[in-house]
Amino acid sequence: MSQEPHSNIVSIAWLNDNLENSNLVILDATMKKRPNGEAIPTPTFKIPNAKPFNFDTDICDQNTDLPHMLPTPAEFQQSVRELGILTDSIIVVYDAMGIFSSPRAWWMFRTMGHKEVYVLNGGLPKWIDEGLPTTEEYSSTPVEIGNFESKFNPSMVKSDKEVLSAIDNNEIQILDARSIGRFKGFEPEPRAGLKGGHIPKSKCIPFTEIIFEGIFKAKKELVSIFKTTLESNTNELIFSCGSGVTASILALGAYECGYNKIAVYDGSWSEWGNSDLLPKNLG
């Protein structure tokens, strides 16, 4: 196997060099639908040996109306064992939009205690652009049940109550990955009936600011973006968005820059914006 990555993001070349590694598990975390229910047009091709990782409707909490909420550790463990994932598996996650939904899968595995998980920079579009082989179907190799064990890290996921209590903590900064228009409340939310605005004292870094053409910007650019936005005494970051997907892009970007205390507000604006009991700001 070629040299282990020193980052949570791996290149197309690295994955191609390691395709035959027996510990490698490739997961396709492509989302099929937009928040309004419209299908997302994506290529039908797959990276060889990839398996589907459907956190939108399958590997998620089935007992809530909120979209793709994190399942319990036991539920997550069972689902990924059925994918053949082991405690020592090296997991590479990609999606068909470059960088969009794959960081959510990265965050889920990290929250469940698995450290050997990486996001493919550029995803399937970059893989195809490089002229690398693809398949029409997911891996058909018979799967033996894995021995993955969830080791839940509660510090990486926040509830609405925890976010509410963090608002007035000057060492914690809430960062919103939605567009400026949605953050300020003058663009409609994609989910029907959802109020606009943002969590008080939160700041906005649209996820599109840290990626370019489906690839994470260079680390020095990421460092500059976060440093410009954050106060010097910031000790912990909580990321929010519409439903916890693009928040994970910011979380991964910040983690790459050395911010170790990161968490995703799982309910995000789908929960906060729909509550009459939680404070909201406009503008």
Task: Characterize the quaternary organization of these chains.
Answer: single chain
> Within the CATH hierarchy, at the fold level, what is the topology of the largest domain?
Oxidized Rhodanese, domain 1
Strand numbers in spatial order across the main sheet? 1-5-4-2-3
Number of strands: 12
Radius of gyration: 18 Å
**Would you list the SSEs in sequence order as H and E?**
EHEEHEHEHEHEHEEEHEHEH
Span between termini: 51 Å
The CATH superfamily of the largest domain is known as Rhodanese-like domain
Tell me what the structure shows:
It contains nine helices and twelve strands. It has 283 residues and is of the alpha/beta class. The protein has two domains: 1-152, Oxidized Rhodanese, domain 1 (3-Layer(aba) Sandwich), CATH 3.40.250.10; 155-272, Oxidized Rhodanese, domain 1, CATH 3.40.250. The chain has a five-stranded parallel sheet. A five-stranded parallel sheet has the order 6-12-11-7-8. Helix 3 (102-111) packs across helix 8. The longest helix is centred in the last third of the chain and has 11 residues, at 219-229. The radius of gyration is 18 Å and the shape is globular. The termini are far apart.
